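ASSEMBLY PREDICTION REQUEST
Request ID: AP-0331
Submitted by: J.K., bench scientist
Number of chains: four
Total residues: 776
Priority: normal
Notes: Please return the full assembly, not individual chains.
Input sequences:
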Amino acid sequence: MTRFDTFCDGVFAIAITLLGLEMKIPTFDTSNAIGLGWALLEQWPVHVAFLTSFFIILVIWNLHHRLFKLIRGVNKPLFFANGLLLFAVTVIPFTTNLVAEYFNSSHRAIAMMVYACQSFPVGFGFVGLLQVTIRYPEVRKPGVEVKRLRAWHRKMWITSCFFVASFILVFIEPYLSLGIIFGAAVYWSLAKTY
Amino acid sequence: MTRFDTFCDGVFAIAITLLGLEMKIPTFDTSNAIGLGWALLEQWPVHVAFLTSFFIILVIWNLHHRLFKLIRGVNKPLFFANGLLLFAVTVIPFTTNLVAEYFNSSHRAIAMMVYACQSFPVGFGFVGLLQVTIRYPEVRKPGVEVKRLRAWHRKMWITSCFFVASFILVFIEPYLSLGIIFGAAVYWSLAKTY
Amino acid sequence: MTRFDTFCDGVFAIAITLLGLEMKIPTFDTSNAIGLGWALLEQWPVHVAFLTSFFIILVIWNLHHRLFKLIRGVNKPLFFANGLLLFAVTVIPFTTNLVAEYFNSSHRAIAMMVYACQSFPVGFGFVGLLQVTIRYPEVRKPGVEVKRLRAWHRKMWITSCFFVASFILVFIEPYLSLGIIFGAAVYWSLAKTY
Amino acid sequence: MTRFDTFCDGVFAIAITLLGLEMKIPTFDTSNAIGLGWALLEQWPVHVAFLTSFFIILVIWNLHHRLFKLIRGVNKPLFFANGLLLFAVTVIPFTTNLVAEYFNSSHRAIAMMVYACQSFPVGFGFVGLLQVTIRYPEVRKPGVEVKRLRAWHRKMWITSCFFVASFILVFIEPYLSLGIIFGAAVYWSLAKTY
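STATUS: Completed
Returned structure:
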């Protein structure tokens, strides 16, 4: 394990734990006996948004972990592609909070648009990381097959296209848009990578 | 130490430190000379909730540490069982805050119910982790005795049943419910595991 | 480096960085041209409290680091003594915030009392860690001289007594109390330990 | 990788992720259909400040990483120089927040002044780290050429002078001041160090 991985893992671990910090305890009519239970149920978008983003960061970390098992050295392009990915991850608590707050309002589409936007640097960050690993032999460990990296790279491209589609679909159906992003996370948690 | 452990440790360390962040400085009648001292004493549920959750996360981390000493590789089922456990841990600062806020109100039962709920993924996360370690020989280190893992697994099941009981008991006696959860933490901090 | 150290380092790193998070941007009369500068100067207790606590955590981390260089295994008493120390560290952002908020008010003594209180588990945590290291040969690395550990242990006891004194002195002179705690941090940052 | 690096990496990782936490979701006239989108666009200084500080911490981490590759042991002067650097990093979320809040107001100059101030301990922290590495042979790994360290040290001095200039320029043109700090980050992300 290199110091590079540790730093990235730190960012992933913090972002995933900060999600919980964004969940505010609800305010409600305290004279009502079951007020708290009701208030917690009513803020279901907060809980769904938290769960979704928790799962997404977990999958990003897992993919990052699997990719860096094949890498032995870090050059400048890899540093920047990785920076793009880390950037996306640090933004997730903010966008999650935005969706949680405005999902049950007339501003749902714009909140979901920002959430979809944040999936671009995730997708293209991984595309970039894979592209660098394919192009520079000094980055990957000896014995790593470029052919298999290319297959992974291709699937990552398709995922990124789906993310762009989820952005456009926001204006037609926000639920579908959220479904695509969540679906991509489920796919990559199960898919073979290398 | 693998990268997997480091990530989990990061989540545990952050969750335990964020507990302190949830403790807000009290507001009070500033014209009163001993107002601050009084206000700090009056918010004792905040301090008790903080201490309890601090101890619980410490014990979860310790148990996780002891279990992963026996593990050499991570497969998909282990990844998901571990994800369930991490999820529970990231939720603790939120539920702690909820209990701290509403323990001295008529909403105590519902707040405690949510706190008890959060103990389910802890218990079943560990049950899952142990089950995976027992079922897949490639996950555990050579020389690890399945028999002793089974004993640990059985005790974990019983603990999880106690957690379910603590959830039901909330409606009868919230203090008893809190006592069961805290008692389980004390038990596991002293119990032999492997 | 064992997994135990990593977890503690995580807690130290998070607590030290969260201090910065507690510094709120000031509110002020925005019609005044130099209002922001003035407001930042006026909240000097916030900055002093931040600097003091930053330095204190840095020194605690450094001492912990130096002690664990001599340790090869963790047993139960060491786990609990270490838990006490970690507890003190996670509380520091809260007490720092309290002092920062109430230092320039009539509640200064009580705020400082809480701040002094928090130094007890730091002192006695280290006393406990050293005591365990002295008592159990299986905890310390072979070749570690008990005699030199005893000298360190004695100095730690004296420091803890100073912390108790700082608590009592709060009622006479809060500045002196703060001076003792800061002085202890300066002493241990320069003192020979082993 | 030593425990010293891990602690520093923890601080860098937390500071970079906390930046995202400082981004508050905007408040706006909810009766307006595109209110949220507009509110997000209107708070562009928040997003620019976040991006700039994200990039700055990433570069600081990268430089720290490259320097500590040449170091084998930590002595007291190195500990304090490193402490100065860590201090600067933990302050960044606060100063970023300050700039984000007051960039579009008459208080821009003072907010930018504080932001420029924070670059001093970054510059002089690195100058100190390099100076210690040059002076004490027991700190650096065998085979590390002092001549090349000196070249790095000289460039770091020049950068620190630019930071001082950016502080003075705040009163003439805040944009230019921000440009210098960002330019230094871009320079060091691409520059050869050793």
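REVIEWER COMMENTS: DSSP finds eight helices and no strands in chain D.
SIGN-OFF: pending second reviewer
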